[in-house]
Amino acid sequence: MLKQRRQFMGAAAAALAAATLGTPALAQNYPERDVTAIIQWGAGGGTDVAMRGYAPYAEEALGRKIVLQNRPGAAGAIGANFVLQQPADGYTLLMGAEPQALFRVMGMADFDYDRFYPINIAAIANTIFVVTRPDSPFNTMQDLLSHVQANPKKLKQYMAGQGTTPFTVNTMVSSLTKFETIPVPFDGDGPAIAALQGGHIDFGFIASGAVIEHVRAGRLKALGVLDNKPYQGIPPMTDAPSLRGLPKYLPWGPWYGVFVRKETPEPVKARLVAAFKKAGDNPQYRKLMEGRGTTMLNIGGAEAEAFIRKWQSTTAWLYQGAGTAKVDPATLGIPKP
């Protein structure tokens, strides 16, 4: 009996050693098959456009295909939860955006990016427009404000989940002046743009990456840009007297990045960081993104983590000050900016 027990223990120890030694070996050979990437938002939105432009160059660097899947819903929580349920082996990536940094602040989930490792933050869309239909009677941000204030809760406004660009810019404006509209929710910019063009909603706050080509082609009309200076002939929202306080929240914008579960082996993380860094340096991708009004960042690892913490601090405390935060950022250890 004792001999059998020793044989069993020896076999178990050998198996454990083999598994321990095998994990780094497998990681060093990564990727041995195609990689799946989950996009948190629907087709045609800012994140979708940014990531679909990014993936081909990352594929070249990895030597494997990246299979993109849209899993929108709950301001990105559905896609993030799906990735958390997959093995932490680098074969399921999250192509995410900024709302996830606020999941805990907004009471949407018990995690944010604390359970993910940032492979790369590709770009920040710090050019945000307020857009409407070409035949709209409004031509400036002040036109829109005057109408909303004279006719509260009449205009239909594109609204996405808590933490998104439409929600945050609406919070900024509402913190400075009375701004009562009918929020109409969509799972991303793509469906909202279609609804705008179809006359189903009246206006929306949308990052330039998703709408700039529509504005240039005359399919949408930009009334203003979230800034205190014009952008390519589009006047700043601060031209409206009641919005001259907007710069205290700026610069601000949505951003797009690639993540894996934090437990992913270090060699796999390193391989992905190098591949997406190389993809972000590609001149064609940079031209695509900069042409859509976004600013390239191309940062990963500790630098990306510091960027997320700063953005999270600014936005979480904006929400707290406006009374829209569900959880006090201080209780989550989020410092004031």
Provide the β-strand percentage band: 15-25%
Measure the end-to-end span.
Answer: 66 Å
CATH topology of the largest domain: D-Maltodextrin-Binding Protein, domain 2
Instruction: Give me the Rg, rounded.
Output: 23 Å
Q: If classified by CATH, what would the architecture of the largest domain be? A: 3-Layer(aba) Sandwich
Per CATH, the class of the largest domain reads Alpha Beta
- By DSSP, the count of extended strands is 11
Protein structure class: alpha/beta
Number of domains: 3
Question: How would you sum up the major sheet?
Answer: 6 strands, mixed
Q: How would you briefly describe this protein structure?
A:
With 337 residues, this protein is α/β, with parallel strands linked by helices. Helix content is 41%, strand content 18%.
Give structural notes.
It is a single chain. The protein contains 10 helices and 11 strands. It is α/β, with parallel strands linked by helices. The protein has 3 domains: 1-26; 31-124 and 255-332, Bordetella uptake gene, domain 1 (D-Maltodextrin-Binding Protein, domain 2); 128-249, 3-Layer(aba) Sandwich (D-Maltodextrin-Binding Protein, domain 2), CATH 3.40.190.10. The strands form 3 sheets. Strands 2-1-3-10-4-11 form a 6-stranded mixed sheet, with helices on both faces. A 3-stranded antiparallel sheet has the order 8-5-9. It is globular and about 65 Å long. Mean pLDDT is 90; it is low at 1-22.
